[in-house]
């Protein structure tokens, strides 16, 4: 009888399950949609992270280019000062040259007057007449000595002024050449500044594009987040409705089961009277309850011995059972054997190390090696000793042959090594100018990648422009 009651209850519960199945199906669809939306949100956030990384990289590059542009502008200002100084030197040289020329002209005019006077007084015989007009030998010797001194003075003066003019002219030519070289470097720096500014403008434009993409991606992320909230709210509403429906179905099922149980009990009470009919060993009908209380042996209508205490009780163990299966709140089976214990996750890490070695060479060896490449071209941004290098690329590549690791730019090389004074400079030291760098050869000479016109060359005047620092390899 109890088995029938259980079956009836299960049937009622199955009916209640069918009532809420539609709600559960919509809830599952929403969960799938929410999972897809969450995946889109995660992808959008990943895209935003990538855009921020790209923007940061662009900003770093812009900062580096800005620093290079500032250095180039400082170099241009330094060169303008050097050019101004050269112009002052050239003007002073021209003034000295003019003075020497004027002195020469005066001396030459005075000499011409003396010669003219002598010829006017006697022509080719003037010297002879001057000698013959002497009063005595002493006067003759005095006049002869005077004449010789005048001749020597005129010759020495002319030679002195000629040498002065030659020296001043050579110095003026040297200043003009150095000024032209400085102006060429200034033009190259100005071209570099334009190129750097163009790069900065391009990267700023790319950074602005990143900002626009980030703003759009953030807008999409907000929409996805709002959609997830809406889906979650609908899921919670459906879940609450489903739970309420299940509770109502369960309540109705329990009420109907209670009613069915009451009816079944009534039927069982009637059946019990039949089931309680038992007989003693003489075949007389006895009361099963009394027989059970007295411990009498009773028999059924077929003469089989029965236990009077069991005649009114039905065992339902065959209709009942137990299960170790667990369910969640949505009716899904929980398989505890397939769960993952996070404490069993193993992690490992590794580390690596690197080492470097360097060798050094004497200053004269560095100079000898560097001078091999005199005549090779100057290429801005280049580091090839044969194919083309700029000033810092040339020094970096030369010193690398001797185990020294120099920074890439001339501005960074100004802080490399150990600083010494120019008075203590030795072959192999770096001579650092504003935006330029060279290798000191000794005796006031340098070897350097000068400019695109002269290429790699040797200059005889290391102080041809302002020296900012002298660095010695260490």
Distance from N terminus to C terminus (CA atoms, Å) equals: 103 Å
- Tell me the strand percentage band: 5-15%
Write down the CATH class of the largest domain: Mainly Alpha
Q: Flag low-confidence runs.
A: 312-360
GO biological process, one term: proteolysis
EC number: 3.4.-.-
Pfam families: CC_PcsB, NLPC_P60
GO molecular function, one term: cysteine-type peptidase activity
Please outline the helices and strands:
Layout: H1 2-122, H2 126-132, H3 137-275, E1 277-279, E2 285-287, H4 288-294, E3 298-299, E4 305-306, E5 326-327, E6 333-334, H5 363-371, E7 383-384, E8 388-389, H6 391-400, H7 410-413, E9 418-420, E10 430-433, E11 436-442, E12 445-451, E13 455-459, E14 469-472
Antiparallel strand pairs: 1-2, 3-4, 5-6, 7-8, 9-14, 10-11, 10-14, 11-12, 12-13
Helix pairs in contact: 1-3
Briefly say what this structure is.
The protein is of the alpha+beta class. Helix content is 63%, strand content 10%.
Would you kindly provide a written description of the structure presented here, covering whatever features stand out?
With 474 residues, the protein is an alpha+beta fold. The protein folds into 2 domains: 18-242, Helix Hairpins (Orthogonal Bundle), CATH 1.10.287; 361-470, Alpha-Beta Complex (endopeptidase fold (from Nostoc punctiforme)), CATH 3.90.1720.10. The chain is 63% helix and 10% strand. It contains 7 helices and 14 strands. It has a 6-stranded antiparallel sheet, sandwiched between helices. Helix 1 runs antiparallel to helix 3. It is rod-shaped and about 205 Å long. The chain starts with a helix and ends with a strand. 19% of the residues are buried.
């Amino acid at each position: 009888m109890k088995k029938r009651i259980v079956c009836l209850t299960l049937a009622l519960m199955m009916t209640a399950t069918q009532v809420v199945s539609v709600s559960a199906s919509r809830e599952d669809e929403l969960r799938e949609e929410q999972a897809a939306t969450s995946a889109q949100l995660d992808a959008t956030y990943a895209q935003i992270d990538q855009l921020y990384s790209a923007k940061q990289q662009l900003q770093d590059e812009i900062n580096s280019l800005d620093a290079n542009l500032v250095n180039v502008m400082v170099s241009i200002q330094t060169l303008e000062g050097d050019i101004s100084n050269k112009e002052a030197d050239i003007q002073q040289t021209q003034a000295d040259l003019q003075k020497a020329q004027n002195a020469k002209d005066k001396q030459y005019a005075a000499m011409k007057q003396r010669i003219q006077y002598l010829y006017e007084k006697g022509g080719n015989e003037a010297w002879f007449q001057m000698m013959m007009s002497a009063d005595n030998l002493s006067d003759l010797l005095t006049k002869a000595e005077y004449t010789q001194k005048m001749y020597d003075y005129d010759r020495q003066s002319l030679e002195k002024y000629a040498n002065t003019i030659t020296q001043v002219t050579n110095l003026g030519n040297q200043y003009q050449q150095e000024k032209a070289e400085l102006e060429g470097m200034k033009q190259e720096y100005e071209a570099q500044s334009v190129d750097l500014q163009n790069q900065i403008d391009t990267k700023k434009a790319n950074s602005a594009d990143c900002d626009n993409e980030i703003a759009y991606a953030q807008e999409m992320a907000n929409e996805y987040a709002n959609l997830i909230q809406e889906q979650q709210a609908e899921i919670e509403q459906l879940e609450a409705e489903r739970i309420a429906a299940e509770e109502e179905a369960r309540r109705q099922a329990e009420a109907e089961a209670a009613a069915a149980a009451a009816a079944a009990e009534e039927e069982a009470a009637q059946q019990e009277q039949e089931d309680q009919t038992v007989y003693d060993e003489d075949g007389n009908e006895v009361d099963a309850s009394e027989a059970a209380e007295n411990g009498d042996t009773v028999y059924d209508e077929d003469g089989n011995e029965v236990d009077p205490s069991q005649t009114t009780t039905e065992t339902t163990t065959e209709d009942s059972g137990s299960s170790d299966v667990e369910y969640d709140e949505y009716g899904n089976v929980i398989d505890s054997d397939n769960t993952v214990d996070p404490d069993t996750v193993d992690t490992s890490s590794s580390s690596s190390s690197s080492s470097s070695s360097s060798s050094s060479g004497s200053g004269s060896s560095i100079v000898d090696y560097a001078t091999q490449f005199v005549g090779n071209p100057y290429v801005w941004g280049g580091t090839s000793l044969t194919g083309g290098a700029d000033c810092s690329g040339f020094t970096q590549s030369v010193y690398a042959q001797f185990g020294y690791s120099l920074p890439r730019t001339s501005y960074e090389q100004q802080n490399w090594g150990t600083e010494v004074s120019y008075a203590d400079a030795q072959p192999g030291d770096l001579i650092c100018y504003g935006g330029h760098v060279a290798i000191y050869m000794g005796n006031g000479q340098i070897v350097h990648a000068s400019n695109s016109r002269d290429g790699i060359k040797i200059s005889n005047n290391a102080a041809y422009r302002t020296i900012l620092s002298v660095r010695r390899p260490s």
